[in-house]
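#struct-queue
[09:14] JT: dropping the first one here, sequence first, then the structure tokens:
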Amino acid sequence: MKIYTKTGDNGTTSLVGGTRISKADIRLEAYGTADELNSFIGMLRAQQLPEDIDKVLNTMQNKLFNLGAILATEKDKLQFVKDLLLKEEDVCYIEQEIDRMSADLPVTRSFILPAGNMRVSTAHVCRTIARRLERRMVALGDEYEESSVCLQYVNRMSDYFFILSKKMAQIDECEVFLWEK
């Protein structure tokens, strides 16, 4: 089986359900951003993380893949992916992990610059891509009213990556660079 179909050579692609849309469509931008975030999470996981953190990131990658499938599905065909919708418990899971990691972190009263070693910096890249994904999902507007929980999940992901960057700096005894006005 060949990987190339040539059906996208004219700048369009198919949603789950068959409708062809422009590759510049906001929906494609949203699920493409989810895919990009998933790839950067994979890059972060390749950096020998503590087992508990790797487990959380593995869960996030799977949920993010589900979200990509939801975003790639036509609004009137969502019944095909309804078992992939994120739930409140998924949001709570990330919140619990944020709280667990934050427990022994120093309070920071200044903005943190996205710098440090590779693990810290990659966590910051994940944070910023999660924020972009959130903006793309909001831009979908009523096209994406099916699950506000999915939007909450992505919002918590960016919070998680911020705290993870601080945790990695602590574990690696890496300097945290604060914004100097």
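[09:21] JT: and here's the second one, same format:
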Amino acid sequence: MVAKYRILCLLGCLSVIGPLFSQQVNGHWYGIGKMQNTREYHNYLSELILRQKGKQVWGELDYYFRDSLVKVPVKGSFDAVSRRLSLQPFSMIYYLSQSARNSIDVNMSGNFNLLVSKTGSVLTGSLLPDNDHRYTVPEINYRFTLSNDTTDLVMTEDIPAKADTAVTIPTTPDIQETPSDEFAKRSKVYTKELELENNVVRIEIYDNGEIDGDMVSLYLNNKLVLPKVSLTHRAVRLTINLDPSLPFNELSMFAENLGTKPPNTAALILYDGATRYETLLSSDLSKSATLKLKKKP
């Protein structure tokens, strides 16, 4: 009887201790931060890259401010018992700054709780301003999701590339041979030129802000490759074949509507083998944001 009691106690201890050792915050966490108590809408598409040794945590917070990618180092601690992540104060751009280059910095600290389930790991919490700015800077609420399939890619610019779930479009989808009349009427605005190694690339696209009913289509060289999809926090993924006979390929985002908060703005990730490129695309009913894709010499 005593032996059975000892075994039960041992199993009970293991059931408590085991999860403590399994709770880690290592990895790439993706989410959108939403400001609270402000009349002007702001959100921060972000990636939190963390490393952990014991209770010590360090890494980097990458976030978009307007049209710029900002990277800041962070450090803090993680308590496996309470599953609480604390980030020490670090500099973040004041939300009313006009740009990332001409900005004012504010010290923010973070408090997050880790939730682990069979479906994934989530960090929920907030970034809070220091005492000097507690009445002028709203807190930023976050829900970060751990990427379970992050690969060791060469990042040209790191931004969130994974969402909770995704819609995958079949490889080399059928294309429309002639552009739609509406697409042909709109002007193209070239936002970025990329030099690529491969003729086959993977693409992910999702909403860069508040989910407001944005719908877009993608055109490759004026031919439809992704017809009329709704943009959400869930990435839409597809693989496209580039035409190597052309001086460059054009990938255009066509706005099917303006949602409730114009214009249509999307985050687009392009994977060229082991290299990942990122960009923001903004289209409306008069112009289509377009990427130039060139083969490296």
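[09:30] RK: nice, looked through the second one.
[09:31] RK: The CA atoms of residues 20 and 80 lie 5 Å apart.
[09:31] JT: good to know. The two ends are 78 Å apart (CA to CA).
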